[in-house]
Amino acid sequence: MRTRVAQVVTIVLFALVMGVFWGTWFSLSRTMDQLPPQTFLAVGHQMIHNLGTPMAILLPFALLSALITLVLARHDGHPAAFWWLAAGFLLMVAALVITLAVEVPIDNQIQDWTAASLPGDWRSLQSRWQLFHTIRTFLSIAAVVAVTISGVVAGRPDQPRVGAVDAQGRAVAGGRRG
After folding, report:
1. I need a surface site. Which of 19, 41, 118, 169 has the fewest CB within 10 A?
2. Per residue in 117-159, pLDDT tens?
3. Within its chain, how far is the Cα of 120 from the centroid?
4. How much is the pTM?
5. How far apart are CA 140 and CA 96, in angstroms?
6. 25-55, pLDDT tens digit by residue?
7. Is residue 158 a part of any domain in this protein?
8. Domain tally for the chain?
């Protein structure tokens, strides 16, 4: 039961992270290159302000939840669930690496820009941010899919495992895999 609760928490937290990435990618960032400099700065500054702190808390918390779930799944003897969860964890770690290595440094530069101080290559920096944001968005979608599959392949906790035997050594009908 603890593993099931941990799986649900991980799926929800991963979905929240993915939702932030997807929402900004789908609704706004694909058109940021079409905005005039002043609008780009106003929107960019507001997004950095609104998302920086919450995502600095949410993403590590989601990964911690996944680690806890991995430990529980490993001890519960659900190899398929464990490996799907591990794949989702690694995909979300990749999204975090992109965030810290590429996105945050660019955000830190944008945060200090004004219309008067825009560097000559600001559009190339914006394009680089967009490319890596697209990659991390789709990594996070794949991570949510993987952790969701992990929850599904684990089976219901009230069902006996496939190959389970009763007290007299007889095979139990039905059951679940993994």
Report:
1. 169
2. 999 999 999 999 999 999 999 999 999 999 999 999 876 655 5
3. 33
4. 0.85
5. 9
6. 998 888 888 889 999 999 999 999 999 999 9
7. no
8. 1
